Amino acid sequence: MVAEAAVTAREVSKSFFMGRQAVPALSKVSLEVPAGTMTALIGPSGSGKSTLLHLIAGLESVESGELEVLRRSVHTCGQAELAALRLREIGFVYQDFSLIADLTLAENVRLPLEGAGVARKQAHEAACDAMARVGLSGLEDRFPAEVSGGQQQRASIARAIVGERKLVLADEPTGSLDSKTGAEIMDILGGLRDDGVTVVLSTHNPTNLSYADQIAELSDGALVSVTERTGSGERG
Ligand SMILES: Nc1ncnc2c1ncn2[C@@H]1O[C@H](COP(=O)(O)OP(=O)(O)OP(=O)(O)O)[C@@H](O)[C@H]1O
Ligand SMILES: [Mg+2]
Questions:
Q1: Is the dihedral angle over the CA atoms 107, 109, 115, 121 positive or is it negative?
Q2: In sequence order, which residues have a C-beta less than 8 Å from that of residue 82 and are 6 or more positions away?
Q3: Is there an atom of ligand 1 within 6 Å of 50 CB?
Q4: Cα of 50 to ligand 2 centre, how many Å?
Q5: What is the DSSP-derived secondary structure letter of residue 145?
Q6: Atom of ligand 1 at shortest range from CA of 46
Q7: Is residue 120 part of a domain?
Q8: Cα–Cα distance between 91 and 156 in angstroms, integer?
Q9: What pLDDT score was predicted for residue 2?
Q10: 8 Å CB contact between 199 and 191
Q11: Is the CB of 21 under 6 A from ligand 1?
C-alpha cells in the first residue's frame, strides 16, 4: 500500500521583501511527507526551516510552485477554506510554547476549537481528552506560569491535536527545554505519529532525529538531502 501524502511540495519558492530587495528564503523545494510519519527539517540558522513550516501551515503565502496540504492545493482553495483547514486540521507547536498567560491550560487547549465555532462544553471535553493524551490530566485549571516548561510544551501539543487534528507542525519544539524534558516531548510527538498523526518538525538537536522517519536537510533555502530512516520505531 502506498501511503497517502499529507504534504506535497513541488518546487516551492518563497522570498521576503526588504523594501524592494527580495530575500530568497526557499528555492524550489520539493518534498513529500507521507501521512502518519514524522519528518524532521534540519539545516543551519536561516536555511528556511521555519519558512517551510509556515507555508505548510498557511501562515505565509507560497510565491511559486505547488503545495498540497491534506489533499488541498493551497493555491486553488479559497481564503475561507484555508482558514478552516488551519483552524480545524492543522496544529502548530512553537519553541516558546505560545500559551496565553491569563488563560488556564484547558482554556488555551480549547481555543482553536472555539475559534472554529465548536460549543464551549464540547470544546472543553475535547481539550481534556487532548490533555490526557499528552499526560496532563489534572492540570486543566492551572495557568501556564504554574506549570513547568515541559508541561507548557505538552499543553501546546494538546492545543495542536485538539479535536483529532491530523497534522502537527512543530518549530523547534524542544529548543527551550533541557535534554531530558526535550526527550519527553519527542516521546509524545513520536507516540502521536505512532497513532497516525503526521508530524513535521524543525530541530537543531541531533538526538531528536532518532524519532524521525524522514530527515530533510535545508541549506540556504534549498533542499540538499532527504534521508529515509527505516526502523525509526527502535528508539533509544
Ligand atoms: N518575515 C521575514 N522577513 C524577511 N526575511 C525573513 C522573514 N522570515 C524569514 N526571513 C529570512 O528567510 C530566511 C530563512 O529564514 P527561516 O526563519 O526560515 O530560517 P530557519 O532555518 O528557521 O532558521 P533558524 O534555525 O534560525 O530558526 C532567512 O534568510 C531569514 O532572514
Ligand atoms: Mg526557524
A1: negative
A2: 58, 72, 74
A3: yes
A4: 4
A5: G
A6: 19
A7: no
A8: 9
A9: 59
A10: no
A11: no
Q: Give the position, in ligand 1's atom list, of the atom nearest the Cα of 14.
A: 12
Q: Is the CB of 100 under 6 A from ligand 1?
A: no
Q: Which domain holds residue 25?
A: 5-98+166-228
Confidence tier at 67 by pLDDT (50, 70, 90):
very high
Atom 3 of ligand 1: nearest residue by CA position: 16
The C-alpha cell of 165 is what?
487534528
Residue pair 84/202 in contact (Cβ under 8 Å)? The answer is: no
Task: Tell me which residue of 98, 207, 114 sits closest to 162, measured CA to CA.
Answer: 114
pLDDT (tens digit per residue) in 26-65: 999 999 999 999 999 999 999 999 999 999 998 898 999 9
- Minimal-distance CA residue to ligand 1 atom 16: 48
55 domain-assigned: yes
**Does the residue 144 lie in any domain?**
no
CB 154 within 8 A of CB 185: yes
Look up residue 90 and give its three cell numbers: 492543522
pLDDT tens per residue across span 165-188: 899 999 999 999 999 999 999 999
Residue 103 lies in a domain: no
Query: What CATH number has the domain bearing residue 184?
Result: 3.40.50.300
Q: Count structural domains, the chain.
A: 1
Mean pLDDT of 87-111: 95
Residue whose CA lies nearest to ligand 1 atom number 13: 25
Ligand 1 atom with the smallest distance to the CA of 43 is 21
Among 42, 51, 200, name the best residue to mutate to test ligand 1's pocket (greatest count of ligand atoms within 8 A of Cβ): 51
| Separation between Cα atoms, residue 209 and residue 156, nearest integer Å | 21
Residues listed for the chain: 236
